[in-house]
Amino acid sequence: MMKxxxxxxxxxxxxxxxxxxxxxxxxxxxxxxxxxxxxxQVEAILISHGHSDHVGDxxxxxKRTGALVIGCFEVATYFQQKGVxxxxxxxGGAHSFPFGxxxxxxxxxxxxxxxxxxxxxxxxxxxxxxxxxDRVIYHSGDTALFSDMKLIGRNRxxxxxxxxxxxxYTMGIDDAIEAVKLLDPARVVPxxxxxFDLIRADAEEFKRRVLAETGAGCDIVAPGESxxx
Length: 229
Prior knowledge:
Number of domains: 1
Largest sheet: 7 strands, mixed
Helix content: 10-25%
Strand content: 25-35%
Radius of gyration: 16 Å
CATH topology: Metallo-beta-lactamase, Chain A
Number of helices: 6
Strand order of the largest sheet: 6-5-4-3-2-1-16
Shape: globular
Number of strands: 16
Order of helices and strands: EEEEHHEHEEEEEEEHEHEHEE
CATH class: Alpha Beta
């Protein structure tokens, strides 16, 4: 059994009782954060893309814990140049790690980090299919709806899908419902909403529609809460 702990925005900590990883650890500066960077003890940090609200505190966590940073080539190179260990992947690629498997999936978004007033290109945005034990979790990253989500769900049965619903920068509720239909996961949890006013969304509406219009279950998970997968 796996535990998925929501730390706010698009940040999730996944644990199987022995191993633990974190995805998109935006904590400091996140008004919805449910943990501080120094509280996390993880062996890997997955970065979906290079925006500051997803890169977040990855560097400080990696330096303190020795965690491996996993992301696309450009993200991995950025972190290597900062002096931490990183594993480069790219869209469509999969790799086995001590904690489980990771496959990088496409995401329709952008990826750039501003440092010292300059934009640093951070490669293609991505999502992740993560296998830990006998469970598969899909973290879509920030993305628009795209029809190839059907292939993602067809090629590997998804136990839990983590999808943005906040609109403006990502899918809103209407498109996220279509994504659930394409992915056909056992369960879905909304993320990337209500952190800021610009991405306000009604998670209860999303849940009602998931249950009425798809074959998936749906949980609303508040920052700091965990669910078993």
